[in-house]
Amino acid sequence: MTGEVRQMRLIVEVEDFDAAVSFFRDTLGLGEEAAFSGDGDERVMILEAGRATLELANPAHHRFVDDVEVGRPVAPRFRLAFEVADATARTAEAAEAGAEVVAPPTETPWRSVNSRLDAPGDLHITLFQELDQ
Fold this sequence. Notes:
By secondary structure, the chain is of the alpha+beta class. The protein is built from 3 helices and 6 strands; from the N terminus they run αββαβαβββ. Helix content is 24%, strand content 31%. A hairpin with a 4-residue loop joins strand 4 and strand 5 (112-119). Residues 4-130 form the VOC domain.
């Protein structure tokens, strides 16, 4: 295939830019790849999040994962998931940094520990730790 994709970039408009940068860069540790500003208060920051994947799920799977991780439907159509080394510790750090814990770290049937949070920038996120690695 000659036109292979080389990078996936998710662009999110956030009302409180500083809070979102602080949370994702400083708390979760996403590396700052580039930052630009323009006229007025126009700003953007590109954060490195490691390997990117696109997970497509049908509505039944979407509901199943909500049930396993949270116990009820909560996720919007889009949810960001970040693999971390220690989901319990990182969930506590995220909460201290302003994220709202929707569901605490829970072991899933697919052998990971997952938590759900509402993060700055109005983003619903999962922090997950693979147990079989």
